[in-house]
Every structure is written in C-alpha cells, then in structure tokens.
Write a structure and sequence with these properties.
50% helix, 12% strand, 3-stranded mixed sheet, Rossmann fold, Hect, E3 ligase catalytic domain fold, alpha/beta, globular
C-alpha cells in the first residue's frame, strides 16, 4: 500500500509551543520614580517606539498598561500584574510589547521565568529596542541575559550607593535615621549633619546613669522616665543600653567588624557604656565560638528562612563532630556540618559551568550584552571625558596667559575658580556614569574561571577562600529551610545566574542544539547583538 494517508489518524502530535498568531498585542510602559513620571518625556518616548514596532509587525494593540512609575526591582507591581492577568485571560493576545526588557523586569532570573511561563501559553514578550528571535534557544538565552544584566545594573547602582555610605561611616558620619535622643541642627540635602542632643536625649542619659550606678531594673527605669514625661518601654531601653552610638562610636552592618569614632557628641562616656554592658552580660553564657573556625565556614552566612536568625556552630568534643545551630533562643535546629556542607556543594553545582567549550562564547555574549545595555552611559562617559579635557585645556591656557602677563592676578583668580569648579562638577558626573570595560572583562574572566570548578575550589580552600566564594555568588548570604533541609538563595551574582540559566537550557537541550545555535549565529558582532535566525 503506497498511499498511507489513511494512517494519519495515528500520527503523534508535536510538543512544540504554539504561539498565538491572531496579531493582537498589549503595550506596557513604566518609569521607576514619581519624579521621572512628572519631569521627563520617557513614557512618551517608550510609547512611541512600542507603537512603531506594533505597526512594523502588523499587530493590533488591544490595550495599554503602565504609563506611570513602578519600580522593577519587584515583580509585584500593580500595573504589571494587571497586564499579566489581562493577557492570560484573553486567548487572542499573543504579544507584550515593551521599550526594552528592563522596562518589563529588573529581577533577573524571575523576569526570565515570567517570560518563559508566558511563552508556554503562547504569549511572547518583545522589545522595541532589543529585538531577538525567541523562537530559538540561543535567542531565548539572549533575552534572558537582558533580564540578568538589568538585575546586574541594579546591583551596580546599589554597590555605588553602599560604597558612598561606607565612606561616610568610616569618616565618622552617621547615615540613616537619627538615633533616638538626637536631632540634626543642619538639615538639608548635601549638607554635613550636625547632631545635637535633644531634651529626650538628656533624659535617656539619666537612664544610663541610673543603670550604671544603681543597676536598676529596666522596668523601674521606664517608670521613672514616665514620671518625667518620657514614655519608653523596658525593651527599648535594653536596645539603647546596647547601642555603642550613645558613647560616641559607630557600628554598622555596612562596615562589618569595624568600630569607628563618630563625629557626633556622645550621650555618655565609654566607661559608663562598658559598665552597663558588663552588668547586662554578667549572667550570659561564657562559651564563645570562633568566627574564623575552618570547620564552620557557613556560620552567620546562613540565616533561618523561618525567623531570619543566623546559624552559629559548635563541636561535640567526644565525637569530634561539628554542628550548625540556629542561635534563636529555644531553637532545637541543629544540623550536621558534614551534611549541610554537602547541601551547599549541591547548590554550587547549579552555578558551575559544565564544559570549558562554553567559556569563550559565554565570555563574549555576557560582555557585549552588558555593553549593549549601557550604550547611553558609555556615550555619556565619552562625552564627559572630552568636555573635561576641553576645560582643562582652557585652564592651561589661562595659566599661560597669566605667566606671560596677558591678564592680571584678579582675572586669573576669578576664571581659575570658575574653571576648577566646572572640572569638579564634570568629574563628579563622570564618576556616576563611568564604565570601565577592562574591569568588566576581568570580573567576567575571574567569575568564569571560578565557575568551572566551584565545588572543588570551595571544598579545598581555606576559610578566606570559602568566604570569598560564598559572598561572590551570594552577596546577601543564604537562607536555610531546616524543615526541608534545603539551602535557599536571596540574591545571586548576575554572571553566575546566567550560568545557571545556561545549565538549565542545556539540560533541556540534550542534542546540543543550544551550543550549535550559539556557534553558528556568531552572537557577538561589531554592533552588539543581532536578531538570531533559525
């Protein structure tokens, strides 16, 4: 029998994702802050380019979402969720159009996950300025990288902000809300704060003295303060008595392990503070654990996912076995260090690059993706550097004219101050827009070098190496679900998050099509990424 059409009824159906092709789309636009929404035309620009893309592809826009300010650090956004619910409930909408992928999400892996789940329902997220072919595995990976580096950009901004605060703290300036009992006598943006002790602070000082001299109970001190018009609970008093800020010192989680002499006036002397500290801890356990214990590298790095309490550790000397312990009072969460280390190594395997042959293409794809995303910043950097050079040349010319007596001292001083201020302003702007390609390449090289053998590097390294790897991958530490014996991540280094994305793509692509697509498409070009074709 040559005609087999009668057997068509037995043919297997394909499992390929069926995209919605009805030609309808929605547009989502957003900015991050209220000031941006009110003071610039970004929303109008986004909408313009999104409409142009819809017209180019012949798509009918059925609804518009966003058009306001929503931070993309979280995907729990009102307009964003409203848009997701809309497209999921309508079978004729096949596209979500955004100006760029960071407008859709800046949450890295979570943004990529949402796009993937939408794609499984036939809905594709497309960018007006970063067009990629998500029908191929390489194109989908490229889209995911945009999400990863949006998160990376957030982390860079956060790191710059943190660096600034760390510098202020190390110079003795307190950052953040004023501690109780103090106020700022020199308010205003950009002004150096001038802390002064308030009326409430003077009463709190009396509380310190009562505690130090008479060892009064916190309840009794609270009652005496109440009679003087200051309502403070005994619990808050305990917190105040333990805060070294009140004896003129600064401690902060942004500068762990450091004690800084503050510029603010102390409420009490260091002797009084230490006397109270000794009284408060006279009944405490004397046993101390070494933070640098080679056998417990995850101490304080792990926190309970239930209560947020850090894990400490101890040794059972009779058996010479180490354990991690949740230090929450009354907790019975003890976990063998050997077992917990294996759980951590299993997690490291997720972020370990499986084959050296992926290093070269991955190195290029990560670098060019980041450069592509920061085109505006790079152009602004180049512009500022040229402007600084121009003003510096003017300053040199001014000095020459003064030396050769073409202008007098008064004219020289006047214009020197003006030009120096202009240079300083442009240099400050440059520091906020700067892009160092060599540092980025070094960071990528180091990360990929580590990524080839993370578990063995961590297992064989000393305590410093272990901690370096831990904080390099997971800057905010890790959570530990004691009930399910599972390590959980809070925030992952974006480069390693992209490696995990690759591993996921490869595991679902056993025939190697993903690698073939990367090699054949020459993903890195002189102008960045081009849309990948099958």
């Amino acid at each position: 029998m040559k005609d087999l059409s009668i057997f068509n009824q037995f043919a297997k159906q394909g499992k390929a994702i069926k995209l919605r092709t009805d030609g309808k789309a929605v547009i989502y636009t957003r900015v991050s802050t209220k000031e941006q929404a009110e003071n610039n035309a970004s929303l109008e620009t986004q909408l313009k380019y999104c409409k142009q893309l819809a017209a180019k592809k012949g798509l009918e826009v059925s609804e518009y979402f966003g058009g306001t300010y929503e931070s993309a650090k979280s995907d729990e956004r009102k307009e964003f969720q409203k848009m997701l619910n809309y497209v999921k409930r309508r079978s004729n909408v096949g596209y979500i159009i955004v100006y760029s992928y960071d407008r859709f999400s800046r949450t890295g892996a979570n943004g990529a996950y949402i796009s993937d789940q939408l794609k499984k329902q036939g809905i594709v997220t497309i960018s007006a300025t970063q067009e990629v072919d998500t029908s191929t595995s390489a194109g989908s990976f490229q889209q995911n990288l945009y999400y990863m580096f949006s998160q990376f950009d957030n982390e860079l901004r956060r790191d710059k902000s943190v660096s600034g605060m760390q510098e202020k703290l190390r110079k003795g300036h307190w950052t953040g809300a004023y501690p109780f009992g103090y106020t700022n006598a020199n308010p205003g943006k950009g002004k150096t704060p001038n802390f002064v002790i308030t009326k409430e602070g003077k009463l709190l000082k009396q509380a310190f003295i009562w505690k130090a001299n008479n060892n009064m109970s916190h309840v009794d001190i609270a009652k005496k303060l109440q009679k003087k018009g200051l309502n403070i609970t005994d619990k808050r008093l305990s917190d105040f008595f333990r805060n070294p800020f009140y004896c003129g010192l600064i401690v902060n989680s942004l500068i762990p392990g450091e004690i800084i002499e503050g510029l603010h006036p102390p409420l009490v002397s260091k002797d009084i503070f230490l006397k109270i500290h000794n009284l408060l801890n006279s009944g405490a356990e004397t046993r101390k654990y070494s933070f640098d214990d080679e056998n417990l590298p995850l101490k304080t790095f792990l926190k309970s996912t239930t209560c947020g309490t850090p894990y400490t550790g101890f040794i059972v000397k009779k058996k010479e076995l180490y354990y991690y312990k949740n230090r929450r009072k009354g907790s019975k969460e003890n976990r063998s260090a050997k077992k917990l280390h294996q759980e951590f190594i299993d997690l490291l395997n997720t972020y370990t690059l499986k084959d050296k042959k992926y290093v070269a293409p991955l190195k290029e794809i990560i670098y060019d993706t980041f450069v592509k995303m920061n085109e505006e910043g790079i152009k602004e950097t180049e512009k500022l550097r040229k402007e600084i050079t121009t003003v510096e040349n003017k300053l040199d010319r001014l000095e020459e004219r003064y030396v050769f007596e073409e202008i007098n001292r008064s004219q020289y001083d006047k214009f020197k101050v003006k030009l120096a201020a202009e240079i300083k302003e442009k240099q400050d702007n440059l520091s906020s827009h700067s892009f160092d390609s060599s540092n980025l390449k070094k960071s990528i090289n180091i990360a990929l070098k580590y990524a080839l053998n993370l578990p063995s590097l961590w297992s064989s390294g000393n305590i410093e190496t272990k901690r370096s790897i831990q904080y390099m991958l997971f800057p905010d530490g890790l959570g530990y679900d004691f009930k399910n014996k599972r390590v959980q991540t809070f925030r992952v280094n974006s480069i390693f998050a992209s490696i995990a994305s690759i591993n996921g793509a490869l595991s679902g692509n056993k025939k190697g099509n993903f690698q073939k697509n990367i090699e054949n498409s020459l993903l890195v070009t002189s102008t960045g990424f081009k849309p990948v074709t099958s």
